[in-house]
Amino acid sequence: MRLITVLFIYSIVISVSLIVINVVFGWKKGIRRSAICLGNNIISALIAFGISKLFTRAFLHGLTASTLKKLQGLFTEQNGVEVLMANETEIIVQTVAYFFFPFIFFIVVYGIVNLVLHIPVNHIYKTRFKEKDDEDDSRPHRIAAAGIRFLSGAITMILLLSPVASVSVRYSSKSINSYSYSENYGKAVDKLAYNPIIFISRNIGGKQFYDGLTTFRYDGHKYSAAREFSDITRLCFSVIDMMDKDVDDYNDRADNAKNSFHSSDILPPFVAKTGQMAATCWDSGEDFWGVSPKIESDYSRIVYVNALKIFKRWTSEDVEEDFDTLVDFVELLQDYDLLEDNSTAHLFEVFSDSDFLNRLVEVLFYNENMRELIPVVFEQAMLLTAKKIGSFAQAEFERIKSEGLTLPQLIDEAEILAAAIGELVGVERSAGTLDIRKLDASQQKKVKNVFDELSQSQILGGTADKLSKFATNIMATN
Predict the structure, then answer these.
(1) ∠ Cα 36 41 45 (to 5°)
(2) What is the predicted pLDDT for the residue at 251?
(3) Which among 21, 207, 263, 476 is least surrounded, fewest beta carbons within 10 Å?
């Protein structure tokens, strides 16, 4: 946290130096000189604000073009796929640049303009006002002059501390609202953000000034670089929080991730495009920037592959809704340890839990894009069951359709499926296997009865009926 200490010292030195120097000069130079100095500072700040925005725009015109070429060259090398299109890349470059460069330009221009204006202003003062200041040397006059210069110094202090005032509060533990962030960084940033000098500077215009300086327009939309950086940081730490499996308040962490994502203007299109290209790479069996999800079970893989098809056609509008669904989906996987273990054995156990299937149906049903995964999950549960009992006649497998079914109907189907698999899990635990050829007569009959009952299901009945006939044939040959 050395940077925090440096910024803390910087804020103290800047504020004390500016206030003390300005008050002393005001006391010595007089009220008219102090008033002119105050006006000079205000005019210089206004001119510098406008010019620094123009400089940044002109500077970025060249920087963006060269950076885009380098970035797109880097991205294109990723398995020959153009990962980010020009718009998504350019908005990221613009956001990063506007976070840093406008203030640098402002300081330079502010200093130059102040010095340039000082020459004619000083000449006017000496020829028209200096004698009056010299004549009026009373204590009230000096106090008023010191007060004016105090105001001038305070304005300069606010301008110079504005980045720290704005950024520190955006990165405070209260704003980021992340457990992992608070433990590692938040407390140190809080000391800076709520330092009295920074606190005062922020609340009398410092935050508004810096936010205005780092706000820019792109393609007809207004963006705040300071806010975007904060939102991206908050989202990253929220995701880290969500990956912590030893949590009792996952919903709070999930809501924080959702809020971070939706408050950002640049994340949805960027995530949509990146998700498209990641899904394209993973669907073809290739890594995406060195990352490739590990899927142990073939049945989990089928669901995963169907999900990739959805991500490959993502748009900015889709990702706004889908992100919330994905967060809820990750929560569900986390609750059932499927992020740690998606093996066939564990998956079969999970399918026997009606709460899992009910929650899965509810999470996916309200999302039009993701709803098509519901029958895929049911299909894989039935295929896994078929394999468990020794049936490999997948060519005879009846395609499951869930179109037109309401949420209560789908939940009923999930309940039926979970109950059936639950009974089969019980047989497997007692017999050590579910292969119907290796079961005794009573266990075989129990398995067949499960499929007989399941055959009454609206969307699972056809396949269950075939599995029941398979069990009957095996029993007849024994």
Answers:
(1) 150
(2) 65
(3) 476
